[in-house]
Amino acid sequence: MPNSIQFPLLLLLSLVPVILCQESIVPAIRVVRLQIDYENADISSVQKINKWNSIMRNSVMASLRFINKHWLICGEEEDEKSPIDCGKAQVTGDIVNDHHYQINVTFISGRDPVKNAKVEATSTVFAVSQIGLKGGIFQYTNALKVLGKPSGTLKFDEAFFCYRGQSLVEGDKCRKLFVGRRLRDSEWPANDMDEERTRNVEHNPIRLGTLIAL
Ligand SMILES: *[C@@H]1O[C@H](CO)[C@@H](O)[C@H](O)[C@H]1NC(C)=O
């Protein structure tokens, strides 16, 4: 009788060091959303502009890239630099009412403090974006002039996410969970094996494509 209990216990104990050795903690992916309100927008003109959505998106992307030339606010995906799309930025715009237009920008951002690209200085994504807003950066191209002056305060949200096979800990960190090695060139998002591994994870990681569409 004792033997039948001892065996699984020994097996379990022998596995513990393996699990601990494989565990590591990395910073979570930070996704931020900037919300800009134009409460004196010329909505009837907006509605007359051909391909407004793509013009508006391109303009906002240009604004982000301009900020990122000075302050490194755009984050990057694992093993991949993406300066052109500023952390896979998604831009949405909506007519709130006949004089109010709203733009949301969601992107993978750098972690605070973010660095200045040229001099030794740091700031935060919020501070840099807020200063940019006041400085007219979100009207970088003439096309956006029809929106009028934006409200003075930027609405800012952030959330932290982990890749599959990791779980969110301490609010903004990811713990790698799986035991065993992962092929270097394994495809991401993960395959069914990862699905199996992550089934019992408390905070199930969200696919990047999904979280960017928040
Ligand atoms: C911006 O995000 C807020 C909060 O999720 C949402 O309520 C609003 O509809 C969004 N606006 C646009 C233009 O996407």
In one word, what is the shape? Answer: elongated
Quickly give the structural class.
alpha+beta
**What ions, cofactors and ligands are bound?**
2-acetamido-2-deoxy-beta-D-glucopyranose
Highest-level CATH class of the largest domain = Alpha Beta
User: From N to C, what is the helix and strand string?
Assistant: HEEHHEEEEHEEEHH
The CATH architecture name of the largest domain reads 2-Layer Sandwich
- Tally of strands: 9
The chain-level mean pLDDT equals 80
What is the end-to-end distance? Answer: 55 Å
Biggest sheet strand order reads 3-4-2-7
Q: Report strand %.
A: 15-25%
Signal peptide: 1-21
Protein name: Dirigent protein
Keywords: Signal
What can you tell me about this protein's structure?
The protein is α+β, with helices and mostly antiparallel strands and 214 residues long. The protein folds into 2 domains: 16-26 and 162-211, no CATH class; 30-160, Alpha-Beta Plaits (2-Layer Sandwich). The chain is built from 6 helices and 9 strands, in the order αββααββββαβββαα. The protein has helices at residues 2-22, 43-48, 52-70, 125-134, 192-198, 208-212; strands spanning 24-27, 29-38, 90-97, 100-109, 114-115, 122-123, 155-161, 166-169, 173-176. The model is unreliable at 182-207 (pLDDT under 50). It binds 2-acetamido-2-deoxy-beta-D-glucopyranose. The site of 2-acetamido-2-deoxy-beta-D-glucopyranose has 6 residues, from β3 and β4. 2-acetamido-2-deoxy-beta-D-glucopyranose (NAG) binds next to β3 and β4.
